[in-house]
């Protein structure tokens, strides 16, 4: 399959998936109990005229399909509507909170890639007690939810040792990095354990292949064997986890940002869900779906470069 045909097909699939996701996201909010108009009034009593005015302003009384088509048309123009809770455009809210979330996700992703690959490599190569220790540590990491890790990290490094702030985002690049260190660790720990175990298993499997045995029999140094013939052939397996890693990071930011009071998109999603701020929840959910699909698209493009046995559109399959 040529690159152009593959790209066009995937883009068409992504457009159809986004359309279906937009319908589900828009409709799901209306299944939740409560009325957004009541949140606008903050519990205050109001006359029927006031309720009618609010419903008219936000088109809450229009038929579902009219509301959906109106919202979809706005989204296609880059307009996510106006927040019911904050009374400001959703794009403005996202722009003010997005830098914190992007920095947090980037820090967590860097920790996942560096530490996860290093632990997987070390466990596969060293074996013995080192491998057993890494397996125990990664099992503990995989079995510990993000919010539990957040509480443990706060209690140890913020409350007891006082090394890091327990909440907030900070101001300025250095301060933001300092404030987001613990949240990034809480966000990354699960994926570090998972990536380490996947890398270890993939490397151990490749070590038993014939080409590795032949390279060793020819006197190729062990480090070169591991780097060129073992680790390189596991990158395809590791790369296929890219979509899962990014989607998990984006979803878990809701828990981690709430636990550490990080002024980011994840905390905004949590607050907006509580107050039934439809436009904000719908915008963030749709953006997460779009990012997930873009990452998977990029993974499919990179796989043939990492593993020549894989062709475009065949993830993990040798041809």
Report the uncertain regions. Answer: none
Main sheet attributes: strand count, strand direction, barrel closure: none
Identify the CATH homologous superfamily of the domain at 90-306: MetI-like
Output the radius of gyration: 24 Å
Number of helical segments with 4 or more residues = 14
Secondary-structure element string: HHHHHHHHHHHHHH
Under CATH, the topology of the domain at 90-306 is which? MetI-like fold
| Percentage beta strand | under 5%
Q: What class, by secondary structure content?
A: mainly alpha
Give the N-to-C terminal Cα separation: 12 Å
The strand count comes to 0
CATH architecture of the domain at 90-306: Orthogonal Bundle
In round numbers, the mean pLDDT is 82
Shape: flat
Helix content: over 70%
* CATH class type of the domain at 90-306: Mainly Alpha
Family: Belongs to the binding-protein-dependent transport system permease family.
Transmembrane segments: 12-32, 102-122, 134-157, 177-198, 235-260, 280-299
Main location: membrane
Keywords: Cell membrane, Membrane, Transmembrane, Transmembrane helix, Transport
């Amino acid at each position: 399959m040529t690159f152009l045909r593959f790209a066009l097909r995937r883009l068409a699939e992504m457009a159809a998936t986004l359309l279906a996701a937009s319908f589900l996201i828009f409709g799901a909010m209306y299944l939740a109990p409560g009325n957004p108009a009541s949140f606008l009034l903050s519990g205050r009593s109001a006359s029927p005229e006031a309720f009618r005015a609010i419903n008219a302003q936000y088109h809450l009384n229009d038929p579902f399909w009219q509301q959906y088509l109106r919202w979809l048309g706005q989204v296609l123009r880059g307009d996510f509507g106006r927040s019911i809770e904050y009374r400001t455009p959703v794009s403005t809210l996202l722009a003010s909170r997005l830098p914190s979330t992007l920095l947090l996700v980037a820090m967590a992703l860097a920790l996942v890639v560096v530490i996860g690959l290093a632990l997987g490599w070390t466990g596969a190569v060293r074996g013995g007690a080192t491998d057993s220790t890494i397996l125990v540590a990664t099992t503990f990491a995989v079995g510990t939810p993000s919010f539990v890790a957040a509480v443990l990290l706060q209690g140890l490094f913020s409350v007891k040792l006082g090394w890091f702030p327990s909440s907030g985002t900070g101001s300025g690049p250095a301060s933001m990095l300092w404030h987001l260190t613990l949240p990034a660790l809480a966000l990354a720990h699960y994926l570090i354990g998972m990536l380490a175990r996947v890398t270890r298993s993939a490397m151990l499997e490749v070590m038993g292949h014939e080409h590795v045995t032949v390279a060793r029999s020819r006197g190729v140094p062990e480090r070169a064997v591991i780097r060129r013939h073992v680790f390189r052939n596991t990158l395809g397996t590791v790369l296929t986890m890219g979509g899962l890693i990014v989607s998990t990071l984006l979803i878990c930011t809701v828990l981690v940002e709430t636990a550490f009071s990080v002024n980011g998109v994840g905390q905004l999603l949590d607050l907006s869900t509580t107050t039934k701020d439809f436009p904000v929840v719908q915008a963030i959910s749709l953006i997460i779906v779009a990012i997930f699909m873009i990452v998977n698209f990029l993974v499919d493009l990179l796989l043939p470069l990492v593993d020549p046995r894989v062709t475009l559109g065949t993830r993990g399959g040798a041809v």
